[in-house]
Amino acid sequence: MSLTRFLKAWRTIPLRDREVVDALVDPTHAGPSPELAQALRAWPGTHYWSDEADGRHIVFTRPTVPRTRDAWAIAGTIPADPSVVLAPGTWGAAFFRAWTAGLTFSVPLLAILLCHELGHYLTARRYQLDVSPPFFLPAPPIPVLIGTLGAFIRLRTILTDRRQLLDVGAAGPIAGFVVALPVLWIGLAHSQPVIESGVRGVQLWVGGVAAWPLGDSLVTHVVRRLAFGAAPAVRLHPMAFAGWFGMFVTALNLLPMAQLDGGHILFAALPRWHERVARGFWVLIMLLGWFWIGWLIWGFVVLALSRGRLSHPPVLDAYRPLPRSRRWLAWGSLVLFLLTFAPVPFRI
After folding, report:
1. What is the pLDDT of residues 178-210, one digit of tens each?
2. Domains in the chain: boundaries
3. What would the pLDDT profile of 13-52 be if each residue is shown by its tens digit?
4. pLDDT at residue 84, rounded to an integer
5. Which residues pair with 25 in a beta bridge?
6. What pLDDT, on a 0 to 100 scale, did the predictor assign at position 152?
7. Spans in the chain with pLDDT lower than 50
């Protein structure tokens, strides 16, 4: 069924991977009418509505090229006793036992990272965007004891408008948080309170020694208090550390800079403010590098990935307004950042 009889005007934008049609709907069918609703069900792609100054629009998307097939790969673990990694003479059965015991950390951590990236991936696929599946970056056990540098996806096309950018950018942190929260809770249920003079906060114990004092975010502090009350310190179970690390990764990605998830969300919500806010946050994390050197490293990594610029690339139609239904998503992303951000994540 042809859609043109329901439209007042339209423009077609051919892209490398898809065709986008921005159509102004005839007011008599803007409800939509039963006839238009039936025609939309037969459209061989996706569509969504946009209320604009000149009336109701429909944005149609139809893929024009076959999907690219990509390989999937995952890497990441931490041995229960890292001394078997640091001492090559112990490699063998002891290393295998420590590696398998470390699955209580690596499996939930990779589940968090995978769900984060799948949030981006599935949302992008919903909009018919050309996107790669998640790629996990393996890391050597020395010096990166967790065995992975994280994961990422590749968007191989320009996004149509700020609605798409906001949805794709926010879906990852939200999906990762939804998994990280129960992982943190279950892990804390298997953790142990520590009552020792001078020991406070969250402690990651390695080989029976409290080696890494960790910083609290609001969410880890609240969950820890719910689980252990006034206990001054907690010795984290490996699963609890995976949950803690999931919160840390969520906050890192939600920093409103460049093309991090937070940068996507900021540009979608306030495109004119993006570069100024990004510069301010970059200066902030560089100052926080006085307390933890990792912030300095992350700041330079962000600059390197964005080729020395903190600005954001444009979308196809930056003037299409965000629907009111997406305002809660932008505010929710800000709240999620405040809940998961730890100013000093590692106290070493």
Report:
1. 999 999 999 999 998 887 766 677 888 765 555
2. 4-63, 83-340
3. 999 889 999 999 999 999 999 999 999 998 888 999 999 9
4. 47
5. 7
6. 84
7. 75-76, 78-87
Distances (CA, A) of 284 to 5, 241, 257, 290, 343: 54, 26, 11, 11, 10
CB atoms within 10 A of CB 97: 14
